[in-house]
Every structure is written in structure tokens, then in C-alpha cells.
Design brief:
The complex is a heterodimer of chains A (313) and B (276). Chain A has 313 residues and is an all-alpha fold. In chain A, a hairpin with a 4-residue loop joins strand 1 and strand 2. In chain A, helix 3 crosses helix 14, helix 4 runs parallel beside helix 8 and helix 13 packs antiparallel against helix 14. In chain A, 39% of the residues are buried. Chain B is globular and about 70 Å long. Chain B has 276 residues and is mainly α. The longest helix of chain B has 32 residues. Classes of the chains: A mainly alpha (313), B mainly alpha (276). Chains A and B meet through helix 2, helix 4, helix 5, helix 6 and helix 7 of A and helix 1, helix 2, helix 5, helix 6 and helix 7 of B.
């Protein structure tokens, strides 16, 4: 079949070459270029050009309020290294992202495993766990802001259980924890659904065979479930890590980076510098840093996949 | 599974779903509570009496109807636009051979690595130069063509790669050109992947917060997430009851649509073609 196909093509090509420049492969290529052109033009205009500009701006002293824009060499980068707040910002960012990723993935997988049991009513629970994904982000955050007040609903529920809750958004460690939980509960449904689809793709015979061989529940999870769904674990962890570094609206509404600097993660600091203090040059430098962190983490995960992702070695 | 294990699983599910359900329940019920009930401690689970007056105030304080329309039409345009752009590019990258293909694909993929916060400063500057700040253009053009659509293109490419080649050969034998093959054969088959893209894109646009607050300054042009944070009194503290009514109005329609169509919805999402 491949041979006749090739034969046909050669014949067609020979016949058409004499007549016209527009051979089938050329026409194909033209259609290909036309089809990708919107995405390609968009990528150049709205991704590569801004990225280049960010790097360019990061070498300028640019303050909108003072009306200055001049070449500053590596001054912004020197400022970045000397910025006394940077240590705190990076610490908050690391704790926030690590906490969010670990909690999100563990909870998503736990929920998916619970819902994957052959039980009545799992569709109902699936709907409940997924529903916050659809509540608009700011609405969700505003409600939690109210619930997390000193005399809000969360402490009300805890009070019923006889526990006196703290003022969640006003304590340094509880504020960070609160933002993480609010964000995880909002979005864990997406990862849960992806995990659920992956779990349903694991062949049942594998579990049955393992059980016959006397493997316990934990061994079956470690040796069958995890390797079988590892491509999904890779996908969800990349999406979640990158997403965790972009959490902005929740912090803007819940804590405005406080108390102190405890919830001022990199994105929020970048927003403050660029749009509140109007230090656009320094904001661009922080953007470059954020881009490098995201790119490095994504590449690292992609590299490491051969070590643990099934089908990839 | 033994009875005891079953009961334990149900109990665990019930406890775990409290933080998922309670906020939405509390938001909806509080929006019709008299203000004294909202601040009651411990919180009231059901309103002592119904009070719909704050729903009227939402529309008095801001052009909320207009803002609702803004969010809806922007999300709709962005969703349809992204589906078109991503289906075309995804198909071309998956099924057509053309010189420079791999390099161009890598160029596009850079968008996956870039959080929108990174490029917000130069994008603002570009649209400012073009005189398009305080319009909806940046909120429409950037998602359809820029970084947010790259994930959609990637999902579509992964889907089109799995289509059997015989289908296209048959289409070609029947006299369809390359574009006809894409539009009449491949695209109708891509409905599940397109559905997933539509859901992702709509939710992304509907939730967008940073871009509207950076680009828009006139209240009648605001989108919903931005408008929700503007229900404050003269001292800047939130008007809770009004905010909750407005928040309920933004969340409830989507939730209802979801509950009605939840099967297609969740299965569509799971079918992103990214499983393996």
C-alpha cells in the first residue's frame, strides 16, 4: 500500500511538475502555513515580542511617576540582588508553591481514588468536589475572605466542634496556609478529574494478578497505580507548579500580600513594583526572574520524566 | 468491599466535601439574608427570612448588567476564537508536513512557559501605544492569539495525531483538498477535544482578573471579577451583602449549566488527549 501510494505520488508529481508550480506537497505546505499563521503571528506579537521587550525594559531605569526612561545597564539586576525584601519574597513563594502543589496533588489523587471505588453516589460527590472550579475566582475568594474572619463561618464551624480558631488572615503563618487552602479547594477538581480518567484507564487484570500474588493495597498502589498513571502525574504536576507561581487574584483580594510580607509571593511583588509603585523597569527585571524560574522548573520536570514516568524510558 | 469500609469511605467523602460545598451554600443563602443574619455568630445555615433588596442595590451601585454582558460576550468571543485558532494550528502541526514545522512548533510552545504576569508590562505598553487601553481589545486578542491559546493548540495537536491516516486518504480520493479534509473530515471528529478546549477557555476568560484591572479603567467597561471587588463603602470596606448578591449572580448560572450537563462536561475535560 505504501508502495502504490508512493508510486501514485511520483506519477502525479511528474505529471503536475510540467504543468504547474503548485504540486500537491507545495499546496499542502501552503495550507499548513495558512492554518498556523494566526497562532504564529499571535505568538510573535503577544509572546516573543513582549518577552524581548521585558528583557529590554529590565535594563532601563523607568519610573512612570518620575517620568524617567533611560538606559541603566545592569542596575536593576544589582538592585534585585541587593533588595532586602527579596529574601522574604522568595521564601514566601517557595513555601506557597510547595505547599500548594503538595496539597493539591495529594488531595486530587486521594479524591480520585475514593471516587474510583465502585460505590453508589460517586457521580454526586464528583459534582460537589468539582463545583468550585466553576464559581468565578473572585466570587470564591470574596466568600472565603468573609468566612475566614475572626468571627466568620470557619471559626463558627470550629466553635461547634469546641475549637477556638485563630484570626486566619491576620496571622503570618495562618494567612499563607489560608491562601493555599482556598486556592486548592477552588481548583483541585480539575486535577481530580484528570486523575480519575487516568485511573479508569488502568487495566483491572493488573490488580487481580497482583492480588493473586499476595500484594497488599499499598504495594498495588506503589507498583501498579503510580506507574500506570505517571504520565498524568507529570502533566498535572507541571500545570500545578506553573499555576502556583501565577496565583495573583486570591492574594490581591484575601491578604494584599500581608500580614507583613508573609503572602507577598513573586507575582504579587512584581505587580506592586510595576503597577502600584510604577517602577516598570524593576518590574520587568522581576518578570525576567519569574520567567526564568518557571522555565527552569518546567524543563527540570520534563528532564526528570524519563526517570519515573512509565512508557518514557 | 466490606460494609464497614464502604461506610468509612462515605464518611470520609462527606467530611472532605464540606469546604467544597459550604462556601457556595453560604454565598447563595447569605445573599438573601437580612444583614444582621450575615454577621450572626455562629453563622446561620438558612436565612431567618428572605430579603432580596440587595439584589437591586447591585445594579444601583454599578452598571452591573453592562458588566455582566461584557464578561459574557468577551468569554464567548474568546472561546470561539481560541477554538478556531487552536483547531487550525493543531491540525497543521499534527498532520501536514511543511518545511520548518518543528522550529515553528517550538516557537509557539514558548507561550506555554510564560505566565501572563511576565508579559503584562510590555503588553500594556504595546496596547497603550496603539491607543487600545481601556477597551476590550487586549482582553480578546491576547487570549485568542497569545500564550493562553497555546495550551489549546497543544491539546488539539495531541488529538489530531491520534486520527487514523486512512480517513484522510479516503477524503483525498474523494477529491477533497487539504483544507476540505481538515474542515469536513478531521474537525467534526475533533468534537470531544474541542469541547475540552471550549470549557478550559471559557473558564479562563471568565476568571481573568489581572488583565482587566491593568487594562480597564471605566466602570461600564469592567468585567465581573473586577466589578465584584468594587462594591465597597466610602471608606473602602466591602459592602458584604451587596458583594454576596453580586457574587451569587456571577456563579449561579454557570453552576446550574454545569449540574445539568455535568456528564459531558467532566468527560469532555478528561478527554484532553493529554492522557498518555
Amino acid at each position: 500500500m505504501a508502495a502504490t501510494d508512493l508510486g501514485d505520488r511520483v506519477a502525479v508529481r511528474a505529471a503536475t511538475r510540467r504543468r504547474t508550480f503548485w504540486t500537491i506537497p507545495r499546496r499542502d505546505a501552503l495550507v499548513g502555513y495558512l492554518l498556523i499563521s494566526p497562532q504564529l503571528v499571535g505568538s510573535v506579537l503577544f509572546v516573543l515580542l513582549p518577552l524581548g521587550l521585558v528583557v529590554y525594559y529590565s535594563f532601563q531605569e523607568w519610573n512612570v511617576l518620575a517620568g524617567t526612561f533611560e538606559y541603566a545597564g545592569a542596575e536593576n539586576y544589582a538592585k534585585l540582588l541587593a533588595d532586602p525584601k527579596m529574601g522574604q519574597v522568595l521564601t514566601s513563594t517557595v513555601f506557597f508553591s510547595a505547599g500548594l502543589v503538595v496539597l493539591n496533588l495529594t488531595l486530587a489523587l486521594t479524591l480520585a481514588i475514593l471516587l474510583n471505588q465502585r460505590l453508589r453516589g460517586t457521580t454526586f460527590f464528583r459534582t460537589l468536589f468539582f463545583s468550585p472550579v466553576l464559581v468565578s475566582l473572585v466570587a470564591w475568594t470574596i466568600v472565603w475572605q468573609f468566612l475566614l474572619q475572626q468571627d466568620g463561618g470557619v471559626n463558627g464551624l470550629l466553635g461547634v466542634a469546641g475549637v477556638e480558631g485563630p484570626n486566619w488572615l491576620r496571622g503570618e503563618s495562618t494567612a499563607l496556609l489560608s491562601v493555599i487552602v482556598v486556592q486548592v479547594v477552588k481548583n483541585v477538581g480539575l486535577n481530580m478529574v484528570l486523575f480519575l480518567a487516568a485511573l479508569q484507564g488502568v487495566p483491572r487484570q493488573l490488580y487481580e494478578a497482583a492480588q493473586l500474588d499476595g500484594a497488599g493495597a499499598w504495594t498495588r498502589f506503589r507498583r501498579i497505580t503510580v506507574p500506570q498513571i505517571s504520565p498524568t502525574i507529570l502533566l498535572t504536576s507541571i500545570i500545578t507548579v506553573v499555576g502556583s507561581l501565577q496565583v495573583f487574584a486570591q492574594i490581591a483580594v484575601l491578604t494584599q500580600g500581608g500580614p507583613g510580607m508573609s503572602t507577598t509571593v513573586l507575582v504579587y511583588y512584581l505587580y506592586q513594583q510595576a503597577f502600584q509603585f510604577r517602577h516598570l523597569g524593576y518590574g520587568a527585571t522581576l518578570s525576567v526572574l519569574l520567567f526564568l524560574i518557571v522555565a527552569a522548573l518546567t524543563l527540570l520536570q520534563w528532564r526528570l520524566r524519563r526517570k519515573w514516568v512509565f512508557h518514557e524510558s | 468491599m466490606s460494609r464497614r469500609v464502604k461506610l468509612a469511605v462515605y464518611a470520609l467523602l462527606c467530611v472532605l466535601c464540606v469546604p467544597f460545598v459550604f462556601p457556595t451554600w453560604w454565598m447563595v443563602t447569605s445573599s438573601v439574608k437580612p444583614i444582621s443574619d450575615i454577621f450572626a455568630f455562629p453563622p446561620a445555615l438558612v436565612p431567618s427570612r428572605f430579603d432580596f433588596s440587595t439584589y437591586g442595590r447591585v445594579f444601583e451601585l454599578q452598571p452591573f448588567g453592562q458588566q455582566y454582558l461584557n464578561s459574557l460576550y468577551i468569554a464567548a468571543v474568546v472561546t470561539v476564537g481560541t477554538m478556531a485558532v487552536a483547531a487550525m494550528a493543531g491540525y497543521a502541526f499534527a498532520r501536514i508536513r511543511f518545511p520548518g514545522q518543528n522550529v515553528l512548533f517550538l516557537v509557539v510552545l514558548v507561550g506555554l512557559l510564560i505566565p501572563s504576569e511576565v508579559t503584562i508590562v510590555p503588553l500594556f505598553q504595546m496596547f497603550h501605544t496603539a491607543g487600545l487601553t481601556d477597551t476590550h481589545w487586549p482582553l480578546i486578542l491576547v487570549p485568542i492569539l497569545g500564550a493562553p491559546s497555546v495550551l489549546a493548540t497543544f491539546i488539539m495537536r495531541q488529538f489530531f495525531i491520534t486520527l487514523p491516516g486512512e480517513l484522510e486518504e479516503a477524503a483525498r480520493v474523494d477529491g477533497l483538498g487539504r483544507f476540505g479534509t481538515f474542515y469536513r473530515v478531521a474537525l467534526p471528529l475533533a468534537r470531544p477535544a474541542l469541547g475540552a478546549v471550549a470549557i478550559f477557555t471559557f473558564l479562563h476568560s471568565w476568571n481573568l482578573y489581572l488583565e482587566p484591572i491593568v487594562f480597564l479603567s471605566t466602570p461600564s467597561k469592567f468585567t465581573l471579577p473586577q466589578a465584584l471587588t468594587q462594591f465597597v463603602d466610602a471608606y473602602g470596606s466591602p459592602l458584604w451583602n451587596v458583594q454576596l448578591s453580586a457574587a451569587t449572580m456571577t456563579a449561579l448560572p454557570i453552576l446550574v449549566v454545569f449540574v445539568l450537563a455535568q456528564r459531558q462536561f467532566i468527560e469532555g475535560l478528561a478527554h484532553t488527549g493529554l492522557k498518555g
